[in-house]
Amino acid sequence: xxxxxxxxxxxxxxxxxxxxxxxxIVSMQDPDxxxxxxxxxxxxxxxxxxxxxxxxVEWLIQKYGISEEEALHLGNLIVKHGYIxxxxxxxxxxxxxxxxxxxxxxxxxxxxxxxxxxxxxxAIYLAKKNIRKQGDLIEHEKDNYNLLHKRINHTWDFVVMxxxxxxxxxxxxxxxxxxxxxxxxxxxxxxxRPPPGAPNVLExxxxxxxxxxxxxxLNMDYYKREIEYCRxxxxxxxxxxxxxxxxxxxxxxxxxxxxxxxxxxxPSNPWxxxxxxxxxxxxxxxxxxxxxxxxxxxxxxxxxxxxxxGRAQLLEFLKKEFSAENLSFWEACEELRYGEQSRIAExxxxxxxxxxxxxxxxxxxxxxxxxxxxxxxxxxxxxYVMDDAQMHIYMLMKKDSYxxxxxxxxxxxxxxxxxxxxxxxxxxxxxxxxQRHSSPSPALLLPAGDAEERGRSPSTAPVxxxxx
Amino acid sequence: xCDQTFLAIVFGPCDKCSKEKPLRPVYIKxxxxxxxxxxxxxxxxxxxxxxxxxxxxxxxxxxxxxxxEEERAKLHDVELHQVAERVEALGQxxxxxxxxxxxxxxxxxxxxxxxxxxxxxxxxxxxxVIVWDSFTTNKEHAVTMPCTWVMACAYAPSGCAIACxxxxxxxxxxxxxxxxxxxxxxxxxxxxxxxxxxSACSFTNSDMQILTASGDGTCALWDVExxxxxxxxxxxxxxxxxxxxxxxxxxxTFVSGGCDKKAMVWDMxxxxxxxxxxxxxxxxxxxxxxxxxxxxxxxxxxxxxxxYDLRADREVxxxxxxxxxxxxxxVDFSLSGRLLFAGYNDYTINVWDVLxxxxxxxxxxxxxxxxxxxxxPDGTAFCSGSWDHTLRIWA
Lengths: 468, 395
Prior knowledge:
The complex is a heterodimer of chains A (468) and B (395). Chain A is built from 21 helices and four strands. Chain A has 468 residues and is mainly α. In chain A, strands 1-2-4-3 form a four-stranded antiparallel β-sheet. In chain A, helix 4 packs across helix 5, helix 16 packs antiparallel against helix 17 and helix 16 packs across helix 19. The radius of gyration of chain A is 35 Å and the shape is elongated. Chain B folds into two domains: 35 residues, no CATH class; 301 residues, YVTN repeat-like/Quinoprotein amine dehydrogenase (Methylamine Dehydrogenase, Chain H), CATH 2.130.10.10. The radius of gyration of chain B is 25 Å and the shape is globular. Chain B has 395 residues and is mainly beta. In chain B, strand 21 and strand 22 form a beta hairpin. The termini of chain B are far apart. Chain B: Belongs to the WD repeat G protein beta family. Chain B: One of its GO terms (biological process) is signal transduction.
């Protein structure tokens, strides 16, 4: 959501948070439920309709049910955005949770109302200050003043005249009002022209929705596509919420013990204790895997096949069943799907020779229809030509070999021999911190030429060998 | 057998006016008919005569969307937090900053983990891209891009290369080399070309393909070696800001989010949009799949995060609080999907209980917007990057 303004050369303020902040401010000023305001004494002057920093923090705590830390943080952001300003020490937009007096900014000066602040206005403001302080401006204000003087020199007479008029009008007001208006203005300019070194809360990223360089045209074709999509979507099959949501509960039950942030990890979380044993024990290719890891292979086929160690065990099992070529075929198809565009024909041919040709050494058993379709498709090889065959073999392994694997002696032995590492307690004396060893970068593991080879085979995690 | 794949000119009675004339095939509502050329002309201009103006198409699209939401609502028989009532509540939650990575001279915009669970790549506003071993906090590589606002960066699955891009409208791949006297920038490969800023990029299952999202409203799949465009994805109505690849075992889809408030799920093979969700009130800054692949979460400028279920085809949870008014810039799940970590523009990180819908914890520490957040590959920690020039590892 962007704030008003015609499409064009002016950058737009992309901050929906400001509207929400304004609503918060309005409810803070609610006569019944808002903050109780009173007169605050500023040296000898009495300022009406003010509140203390403490009042603000308390109100936020009450209204939103949040902690004091969060309320202070939120209050600080409101002040930083110029919606509340301090009366004492007005040059620093900071919320103090004590008796310091604060006031609500007038809507005239709200960030969203007056954005963007014009150079002309800033020039007038600085000119006023300059006149009042007889040239004794702060460093950065002096710089800005000189810059503006150069840039909009042609309007300078107007600037000075306006400045003088505003100062004259101000003299007519009561002291209390003068102080308030000064603080309001100062707060506004602190937000819109922050001093160097101070964070600029109005800074945004690169402009979004720049219609000049977009490829999207909201024309008839776009809406026709949306309409077609909606029609198709209406007809799709959906699953009842109760069934889908049950899925999350089950997933949660299965995986929470494996989630290091939720359940901790044994022997310890390397980030907390500086001990990398956990990573060493769970390295992609380790001799004896941990219990949790082997258990995870039993959750679903994907867990088994995506873990390099699990996949190696699966291969061993399939060899015993004389169906190892299925896994090799699947791996070759993955290489095709995620491989280089230029090697597609070569890979397809290699797959055909090894797995699909009549009399091939590692012939895979695909149903005749799929085989026919695949052989036909090979004539014009493309990245997805093996998809049907690959899916068939994947499902075969998943529905057929995998359940047998889980019941096999091989798997049972893996479970029995798997390690449960003992817990390492966090060191009691933090200054005796364990030395943090570096590990070899995956980019270092092979000589430069082979780095490309390594990049080609998909889903192989790098194998760092840890120093103990 | 006679092969009738060529276009035969048929002479016969027109399906519309019944006159005997040379006929042409015409497709109406997926049915093939044979019209004479005069009737074809009339058909083509019928659209104009029926006043198919832009406005009427737009309103038809809107009303259909409304009907679609009604359809979706029909199978919604229970809320997530109701189902989650029997799940144990989470106890006290303590996460602290365990590492602070200082070295960027300007706002950190993006980061990604290496599969080795400890290295990360990060990019910033001043064009610097740094590879760190975040465990030791050592910088291992650094390269300066020729553009500012490098909003996207990604680590290759092999750990041997990184990809990045931003205001240069391109995505470039840099192989990581440790050779002395080797200038990383020399081996740079320009892969993707868009017509507006690059907002997100990700390698697929190998180093050979990259998926990109851009401010020009499109996503695209590229072959790294040749720079060839393999597939493009059109459908967003404005800038695309984020994307995430599905963890599904048959890995063929991804989700993207954009300034048009839509989150769209795409089929990588055909380029078609499979599903679309439009319930946010503002730009979607971040999307991330739930670990099972059956759902995804989104973070938006409207200060909410939402969970969308793909099988139920609807939004199933909203994570919001009245006191949170700043946009969520980046979201990610813990390994089990029980926790959703979200970085916000109010400098904080909120931790949500995905099942119960409540906020578990709020983490302070950053001194400016949190712009990027990713959980490590083994779920032991997460890393946040901020406009305060630092990255923090939390565990």
